[in-house]
Amino acid sequence: MTDPQSVPPTAGRGVRRLIIAMDIEHYSRLPDFGQVYAQHVMSELLREAGQHGALERAQWDIQQQGDGELALLPPGIDEAGVITTLMRQVSSGLHRHNQRAAARLRMRIAVHEGLTYIADSGFAGDAVNTACRLRDAKEAKDALRNTENDVVLIVSERIYRDVICGDDSYDLPPAGFRETEVVMADKGFRAQAFIYAGRAAGARPAAEATPGEATAGAATRPAQPAAQGGSGSSFTFTGPTTVGDIAGRDVIKHSPAWPADRTRDE
Question: For residues 150 and 144, what is the distance between their CA atoms, to the nearest angstrom?
Fold first, then answer.
């Protein structure tokens, strides 16, 4: 029988926290060294996200899970800022990594909040289980498979209503989320969730369109006046372009030295 004096004073006391559950896609298909490397990449991406505003990693309570991670964040944080920064930094980090890596890495991120507990063998509580089930849901896996993005975000209805809609940020607009029902009959689990997956697979930017598609698209757009002076180069913006950490991803430069049908990161 457990000696009551040996039980930590905080045991059994739930603390309401933001819960983040992450997973690397197809982790088990990687060779041994590939798994070690994937874990290192994920750890570095999350460390960098913390440095850029997603809360310093020293403030995260972390439970490592091999192909993923489960984290509890302290109460009273800017939840909208953390979620938005995390998605922005992980997305840009994976994009940079995958441009030079032999094997593409992709991730699913789930976010929920509720009462959490620190137990002897890890985190406990229904809210923790919910975050993990959202991350592992078929709907989240399908969303990642059907998008060209390297990361998808799935959030609980509570997070969507309170945080995503309440913040209404440019990076994670509420209209960009798709509502879905997650059902796991074998676990007795059913919940409404919202998925942000970015651009769907097959929705190519104008720079990658076929000549026929490009011509059809051009017919529906008003002509733009040519740039005057300078080197004679012009730029076409084919999609959302962020000035900051990522710039020029969707910019086409037209000049004699660079063909107009190619996209170049400036």
Answer: 8
Nearest to 164 by CA among 176, 150, 152: 176
- State residue 53's pLDDT score: 74
Question: Is residue 137 within 8 Å of 49, Cβ to Cβ?
Answer: no
How does DSSP classify residue 170?
A: S
Domain parsing of the chain, residue ranges: 14-196, 204-219+230-266
Please state which architecture CATH assigns to domain 14-196: 2-Layer Sandwich (3.30)
Residue 236 in contact with residue 252, Cβ under 8 Å? yes
pLDDT digits (tens, 9 = 90+) for 48-103: 888 887 778 888 999 988 788 999 999 999 999 999 999 999 999 999 999 998 88
Helix locations, the chain, DSSP H: 32-51, 79-100, 126-135, 138-145, 157-159, 165-167, 211-219
Contact in structure between 141 and 162 (CB atoms under 8 Å): no
pTM of the predicted model as reported, rounded to 2 decimal places: 0.71
Nearest to 34 by CA among 94, 97, 105: 105
